[in-house]
């Protein structure tokens, strides 16, 4: 029985709210084992763990890292992958097929389905009809739980612990699903503090604030990134989600990424020890690329990306065991 199968029958990964502290500890310990095994490509312990299993990746929205990391994880565990990277155009959706029918059908081809969808709630719907595990790889403005897991795994690896962490989340907090999932997941840790940095019109939504209050996690809202610099251990940058905006909202936030950026003017004021994370892709919110990328604690292009491979491979292994 894997860690994710328990009394609450969590055999789908849909929301970061479904994880307890115990489950997270077990997931991260298991992920450490996968990371250590993958270090030796030819001989690693789990290279045949998922032999004979098939993963379907069903992506209705663009993706590079999420799809590749799931697929790479599956292949490295000896499993196989089928999929469509542009399901909105290349699946039977164009012929009017419902998500319900697609999931019912793909259930007969695959042992697990990794799905990214443009509509919030789509992963829930898929899970309600699927006989095989569904992993939510992003549902519209909703959630991206495996991103939150890899973000926390990165913090744990780079800072040694997640308890006590003070994090600033920056950018389009209203439309970004990674922020919601990460904020919710952080509620499992002690002495966490979150500072949400955004202009008023892109500030984090009420449901996230309510959940933090319910779980007793203190947070602050501010429009000043630099004011947050001295007090935080991590800065979590996010891009403006232009594709999720109306034309009016898009023009209103045309300069927001430049205004809420780590750039030539402020990078020197960012303490060396501060971890900079970004789920990627990035736009102009990290402007002084050479200086910011070059910092020892800017981890978005390597450590954070590798964490994605390890965490997702662990989840596949666990859900399929
Ligand atoms: C994120 C997403 O899809 O929500 N990307 C990712 O999976 N790394 C972030 C984004 O698109 O801005």
What key phrases describe this protein's structure?
single chain, 321 residues, alpha/beta, Rossmann fold, 2 domains, five-stranded parallel sheet, four-stranded parallel sheet, 13 helices, binds N-carbamoyl-L-aspartate
Structure notes:
- The chain is α/β, with parallel strands linked by helices.
- The protein has two domains: 3-142 and 306-319, 3-Layer(aba) Sandwich (Rossmann fold), CATH 3.40.50; 145-304, 3-Layer(aba) Sandwich (Rossmann fold).
- 37% of the residues lie in helices and 14% in strands.
- The chain is built from 13 helices and nine strands.
- A five-stranded parallel β-sheet has the order 7-6-5-8-9, covered by helices on one side.
- Strand 6 (193-197), helix 8 (206-214) and strand 7 form a beta-alpha-beta unit.
- The protein is globular.
- N-carbamoyl-L-aspartate (NCD) is lined by residues 65-66, 138, 144, 147, 177-178, 238-239, 279-280.
């Amino acid at each position: 029985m894997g860690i994710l199968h328990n009394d609450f029958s969590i055999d789908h990964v849909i929301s970061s709210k479904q994880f307890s502290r115990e489950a997270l500890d077990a997931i991260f310990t298991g992920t450490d084992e996968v990371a250590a095994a993958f270090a030796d490509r030819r001989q690693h312990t789990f290279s045949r763990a998922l032999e004979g299993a098939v993963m379907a990746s069903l992506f209705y929205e663009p993706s590079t890292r999420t799809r590749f990391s799931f697929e790479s994880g599956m292949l490295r565990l000896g499993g196989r992958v089928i999929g469509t990277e542009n399901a909105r155009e290349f699946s039977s959706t164009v012929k009017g097929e419902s998500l319900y029918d697609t999931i019912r059908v793909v259930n007969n081809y695959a042992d697990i389905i990794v799905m990214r969808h443009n509509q919030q709630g789509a992963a829930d719907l898929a899970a309600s009809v699927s006989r095989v595990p569904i992993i939510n790889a992003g549902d519209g403005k909703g959630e991206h739980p495996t991103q939150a897991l890899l973000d926390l795994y990165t913090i744990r690896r780079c800072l040694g612990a997640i308890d006590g962490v003070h994090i600033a989340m920056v950018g389009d907090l209203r439309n970004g699903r990674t922020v919601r999932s990460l904020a919710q997941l952080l509620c499992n840790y002690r002495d966490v503090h979150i500072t949400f940095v955004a202009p008023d019109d892109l500030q984090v939504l009420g449901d996230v604030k309510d959940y933090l209050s319910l779980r007793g996690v203190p947070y602050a809202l501010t429009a000043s990134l630099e004011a947050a610099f001295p007090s935080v251990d991590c800065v979590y940058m996010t891009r403006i989600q232009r594709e999720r905006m109306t034309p009016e909202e898009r023009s209103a936030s045309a300069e927001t990424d430049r205004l809420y950026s780590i750039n030539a003017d402020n990078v020197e004021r960012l303490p060396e020890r501060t971890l900079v994370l970004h789920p990627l892709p990035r736009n102009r919110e990290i402007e002084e690329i050479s200086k910011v990328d070059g910092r020892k604690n800017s981890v978005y292009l390597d450590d954070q990306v590798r964490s994605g491979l390890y965490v997702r491979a662990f989840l596949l292994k666990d859900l399929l065991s």
